Amino acid sequence: MLLIPRNKTRFKPFLHNITDIKAFSKSVRSSAMILLSITTLLLTACGGEVKPPEKQVVEEQPSRFSKDKMAYRHTYHPEWPKEVRNEVYGDKETFSTPRILFSTDIEWTGQTTLFSARMDGSDRRRIIPETAFNDKWMVGLHKPERSPDNRYIALSMDTTEHGFTRELWDTKTQQFIFMSKGYGHAHFNWTKDSENVIFYASGKHYNYHVPTKKLTERPIIYSNGLFLLPDGKTFLADKKNKYWLHDFNGDVNEKVDLGYNTHFTMKYLEVSPFGVYIYFVSEGLGAAQNYWINLSDPSKRIILPRKAGTFFFSDKKIKC
Fold first, then answer.
1. CA distance 32 to 35
2. Which residues contact 313 (CB under 8 A, 6 or more apart)?
3. For residue 165, how many C-alpha atoms fall within 13 Å in the half-sphere facing its CB?
4. Nearest to 260 by CA among 279, 227, 282, 280
5. Residue 194: alpha-carbon gap to chain centroid
6. Per-residue model confidence as pLDDT tens digits over 143-184
7. In the chain, count of helices (H) and strands (E)?
């Protein structure tokens, strides 16, 4: 059933059948040939010459994008260039603002590697070239930690030769530095001078001295996550629904009970850059929520519904 009757259609085609189309096409070609001949005669009679149009010379601009056949997939994100830009050690502009670390795939190779970006997600740069991963892979669930001088990055690796390892990536020499074997979450911490990285491995606690490449075992601090506070002297140990403060040698200074029962768990705990707050996501008591606890007075806390999957502390110090 037609919604508009044919005899009442507002628009009608100019050509009704194939015979009309052929005739029309032949007529157009003939007219075009006659017009071209007349134009040529007029130009010749006036002493002109028929010259082909000159080719416009366009200076080829160097492309800043990869010509890889898979590169077109990045066109949906204008800030991500199709080339992969490398992070350069010591570049003042790159490190003029704080940077976050994240791992992702080089799409056309399938290799997962480490990138950095500004805190707003711009200026993404590759840190470790995929060619450096020879029979080794990053352990994705273990958070990498960068040294305060931005030169070294501590990583958990899965290797063919040693199994699970703790290693450093030296952004200056572009090489891996083996520290130790070991499984389990590493919970890397750096001292402020960038000379010592502290971590767990296979149920033990270690200190690796970077200048001498010396590995020593430390007194164990049991925790679900360990954080060296900005004073460089105090460790905050995650104890599921509370936290303990330890001195640098591991002795307990203070046990802080947040008042939650054993069903409550602090997930994704982080310490703010100036050691003023801890942040975590609640688990075990209803819907997950965001928590900020003031370390100088744990009774001061902010609790908000969890609406985002990622949270970053600002690098600006604010008054409590």
1. 5
2. 270, 272, 273, 277, 279
3. 19
4. 282
5. 24
6. 999 999 999 999 999 999 899 999 999 999 999 999 999 999
7. 1, 20
